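Exercise 7. Given the encoded structure of a 462-residue chain, write a plausible sequence.
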C-alpha cells in the first residue's frame, strides 16, 4: 500500500470507540486503519504509542478580523487559524455579513477573499442576515446550494444595524423548514436590556454594570421566543453561545417536545463566573456578549453537556487586546465585546470536563468534533477518524500539561482569560488533511494551506 503518513500505535478515539491502532494517510485522506500498517513507499511514520489520537476539533463559532465595537478583532485569519492548529482545532467556521446593497452571496465572496490567502487550517462561513427582504428569502436557497447551509441572526445589536426582529426570524425559520438550513441565533432580549443598561449607567458601577444589565431572563426569554417560532414554523434552530442555566432548561423543554433546536455553549460560560468583573483594573477585559454568568450557570451548562441537551462547545473567539479594551474608558457599554479562545477550546474542555471525570474522552470528541461536524454538515469528512475522512488528526500526550501564558500562545492577544491556569490536552502534533501543521507543540504550518469547505444541511446526531 502507498501511504504518505502513518500515525502508529496510539489510542484512536472517536465519539463511539477507543482502540489501539495505526492510521494510514494518503493524499490528505484516511485510507487505512488497522494494526502494523506498512507502506511500500517510505511513509512519514509518527510514533503515537502511549498517546491519545483524536479527530481535529471543529470550532463552529469564531470572529476573525471582525469590524466590531469601533475596532477590528485582533486575530486575523492567519493568527487565528495558527492559534486554532496549536490548540488542535482543524476547522473553524467564521461569518460573512450580508452586503446590504448586493445581498448574501456578495458578503460571502468578500469574506472568502479575506480568508483564502491567510487560513492555515480549513474553514467555512455562516451567512449573517441583517436586513430581511423577499429577495433575501429567495437568496437563502442559493447560499445553501453554494455549500453554506447555516445563517446567523441576531436578536440584539439594533444600533449596529444587525438586529433581526421577530418577523425576520419567523420568516427565516419558515424558509429553513424548506431547505434544511440551520438558523443560528444570538438570543438576548434587547429592548428590556436597554432599560437596564440605562439604569445601571447612571449608577457608576464600572464593568460590573455589564453583569447587572443582562440578568439571566434576558437570554431565557429570547431563547424561549426563538424556540416558539421554531415550533410553529417547523424550522431548524441553533442557539449560539448559550450562557445561562435557564437557557439550557428552555432548550431541554423544546427538545422534549420534538422541536428541532440545538445549542452550543463556550468555555467562558463553563469555567469562569461574574467574579472576574469585580477586578477594578482588569475586570473589563472579560467583557463578552452575552456576558459571563454565575457559578450555578457553569454547573447547569456542564450538566447539559453531560446529559445531552447542550450539544456543542465552541468559543465565540473575538479577540481584543488590552489597548482595544481600554476604549471603554469607564463606560461598560463601550467595551469591545469578546475574547481569545480557539487555542484553548480543546484543552479547557479536556481539563475541566474529561480530566475532572465529568465525561469520557469519547464524549469530549462528541462535543468538540462529531456533533459540530454533524450539525454543521461537515460529517463524515470532518469530525471523526474513519476510512475516507479528511486526515485531520491530533495527537495528545495525556501526561503533559502547561501553564497558560498569553506570551507563549499563537493568538495576537496580549492577555489571556486563562492566564496561569494549568491545562492538559494541547496536542503535540496536529495534522490538517494529512499535513503536519503542529509538531512538538509548535506551529509548523503555512498560511494559505487551509481551504474553504463546502457543507451540506445538518444530519441526525445518532
Ligand atoms: O462578544 C462577542 N461575543 N463578540 C462577537 C459578537 C457576537 O455577539 O457573537
Ligand atoms: Zn453573538
Ligand atoms: Zn459570536
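Solution.
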Amino acid at each position: 500500500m502507498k501511504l504518505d503518513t502513518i500515525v502508529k500505535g496510539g489510542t484512536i478515539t472517536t465519539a463511539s470507540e477507543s482502540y489501539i491502532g495505526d492510521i494510514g494517510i494518503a493524499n490528505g485522506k484516511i485510507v487505512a486503519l488497522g494494526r502494523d500498517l506498512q507502506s511500500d513507499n517510505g511513509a512519514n511514520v509518527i510514533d503515537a504509542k502511549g498517546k491519545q489520537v483524536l479527530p481535529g476539533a471543529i470550532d463552529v463559532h469564531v470572529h476573525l478580523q471582525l469590524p466590531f465595537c469601533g475596532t477590528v478583532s485582533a486575530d486575523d485569519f492567519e493568527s487565528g487559524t495558527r492559534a486554532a492548529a496549536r490548540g488542535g482545532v482543524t476547522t473553524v467556521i467564521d461569518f460573512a455579513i450580508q452586503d446590504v446593497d448586493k445581498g448574501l452571496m456578495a458578503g460571502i465572496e468578500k469574506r472568502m477573499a479575506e480568508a483564502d490567502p491567510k487560513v492555515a487550517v480549513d474553514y467555512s462561513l455562516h451567512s449573517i442576515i441583517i436586513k430581511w427582504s423577499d429577495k433575501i428569502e429567495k437568496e437563502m436557497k442559493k447560499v445553501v446550494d453554494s455549500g453554506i447551509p447555516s445563517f446567523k441572526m441576531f436578536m440584539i445589536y439594533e444600533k449596529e444595524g444587525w438586529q433581526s426582529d421577530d418577523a425576520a426570524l419567523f420568516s427565516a425559520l419558515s424558509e429553513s423548514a424548506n431547505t434544511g438550513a440551520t438558523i443560528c441565533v444570538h438570543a438576548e432580549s434587547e429592548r428590556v436590556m436597554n432599560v437596564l443598561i440605562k439604569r445601571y449607567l447612571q449608577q457608576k458601577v464600572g464593568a460590573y454594570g455589564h453583569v447587572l444589565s443582562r440578568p439571566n431572563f434576558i437570554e431565557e426569554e429570547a431563547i424561549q421566543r426563538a424556540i416558539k417560532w421554531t415550533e410553529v414554523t417547523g424550522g431548524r434552530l441553533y442557539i449560539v453561545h448559550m450562557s445561562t442555566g435557564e437557557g439550557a432548561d428552555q432548550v431541554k423543554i423544546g427538545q422534549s417536545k420534538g422541536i428541532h433546536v440545538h445549542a452550543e455553549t463556550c468555555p467562558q460560560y463553563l469555567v469562569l463566573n461574574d467574579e472576574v468583573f469585580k477586578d477594578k483594573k482588569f475586570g473589563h477585559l472579560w467583557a463578552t456578549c452575552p456576558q459571563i454568568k454565575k457559578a450555578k450557570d457553569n454547573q447547569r451548562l456542564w450538566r447539559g453537556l453531560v446529559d445531552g441537551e447542550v450539544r456543542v462547545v465552541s468559543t465565540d473567539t473575538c479577540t481584543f487586546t488590552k489597548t482595544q479594551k481600554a476604549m471603554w474608558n469607564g463606560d461598560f457599554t463601550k467595551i469591545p465585546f469578546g475574547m481569545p479562545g480557539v487555542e484553548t477550546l480543546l484543552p479547557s474542555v479536556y481539563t475541566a470536563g474529561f480530566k475532572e471525570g465529568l465525561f469520557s474522552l469519547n464524549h469530549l470528541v462528541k462535543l468538540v468534533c462529531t456533533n459540530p461536524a454533524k450539525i454543521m454538515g461537515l460529517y463524515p469528512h470532518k469530525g471523526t477518524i474513519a476510512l475516507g475522512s479528511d486526515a485531520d488528526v491530533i495527537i495528545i500526550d495525556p501526561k503533559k500539561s502547561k501553564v497558560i501564558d498569553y506570551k507563549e500562545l499563537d493568538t495576537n492577544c496580549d492577555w489571556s482569560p486563562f492566564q496561569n491556569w494549568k491545562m492538559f490536552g494541547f496536542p503535540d502534533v496536529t495534522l490538517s488533511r494529512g499535513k503536519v501543521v503542529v509538531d512538538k507543540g509548535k506551529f509548523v504550518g503555512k498560511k494559505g494551506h487551509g481551504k474553504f469547505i463546502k457543507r451540506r444541511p445538518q444530519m441526525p446526531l445518532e
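Remark. The mean pLDDT is 97. Students should compare their own answers with the one above.
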